[in-house]
Design goal:
Blueprint (H helix, E strand, L loop, with lengths): L12 H4 L13 H38 L7 H29 L4 H37 L15 H37 L1 H4 L1 H10 L8 H4 L10 H24 L9
Helix pairs in contact: 2-3, 2-4, 3-4, 3-5, 4-5, 4-9, 5-7, 5-9, 7-9
């Protein structure tokens, strides 16, 4: 009786087999891919914006020092650009991107999730960058023998790094979500509705910025939330108000986008 043996591999087959087989690529979800595409598109614009801010922040104190006395933070004023520049860019994204997204077989749901995720990342990165720039500027001013200070509110050095980051993040997150909502309202309802609803869509940005900048206590927010007089609005109160407003803006953006009529692709 003979015993059957399994056929042995052909000579050279073992040498051609890879030692570690290639891993199968992980398939990302549509929302994650949307967020990644939006961030890739936004990155060059953010780089140009950051370069301009750096040039201005470095050049202005040197010019002022040549003719007078430096005593004010320039990064402090640059915070406004971090609010309104991404705000205006995201208006265009909300108006123009969804038709392209849907024409490529993607859903409105994935666009909503991806856009919201991208906005959170943009606000967090910009907040961290502004916080680091503020602290670097303070170190530079001290090394040059200049005075360093802010107009009012927003950042008290004694409150520490966390309070600064919270203040930036609260303002930027609400502002950038507001940009998405403004662009969506204009796209869905047209010019009249987009303009008439601006107090509702942009009002939250002004409210949070006012809360953060209330260092002079000429607005009674500190009394309302139980803060110490002259210390401005407590950072946790700013964060709580911003969280509620951000949730409301995101919900409105989601509802309007899911109901948005998009013409089918032709050709």
């Amino acid at each position: 009786m003979t015993t059957a043996h399994a056929p042995s591999p052909a000579p050279g087959a073992a040498r051609g087999r890879p030692l570690w087989p290639a891993r199968t690529g992980r398939r990302r979800g549509p929302a994650l891919r949307t967020a990644r595409n939006l961030l890739r598109w936004f990155a060059p614009i953010a780089g140009i914006y950051a370069a301009i801010v750096v040039v201005v922040v470095v050049a202005v104190p040197l010019v002022v020092a040549s003719v007078g006395h430096v005593e004010m933070s320039v990064v402090w004023f640059a915070r406004q650009s971090g609010i309104w520049f991404p705000f205006s860019v995201l208006i265009g994204v909300a108006a123009a991107y969804p038709p392209v997204h849907v024409a490529n077989g993607m859903t409105r749901r994935s666009y909503v999730r991806g856009a919201l995720g991208a906005v959170v990342v943009i606000a967090a990165v910009l907040s961290a960058g502004m916080t680091a720039a503020l602290l670097a500027e303070r170190t530079w001013y001290r090394a040059m023998g200049w005075d360093w200070g802010l107009v009012d509110g927003w950042f008290a050095p004694s409150e520490g790094l966390v309070a600064v980051f919270i203040s930036y993040l609260a303002t930027y997150l609400v502002a950038h979500l507001s940009g998405l909502l403004v662009g969506t309202v204009y796209a869905v309802g047209g010019g009249w509705w987009g303009t008439l609803t601006l107090p509702l869509t942009v009002g939250p940005v002004l409210l949070v910025a006012t809360l953060v900048g209330d260092g002079g206590d000429w607005r009674p927010f500190a009394d309302v939330v139980g803060g110490e007089p002259g210390t401005g609005t407590p950072p946790l109160a700013v964060l709580a108000v911003a969280t509620v407003l951000a949730a409301a803006l995101a919900a409105a953006f989601s509802v309007l986008t899911r109901r948005r009529a998009i013409a089918p692709r032709r050709g």
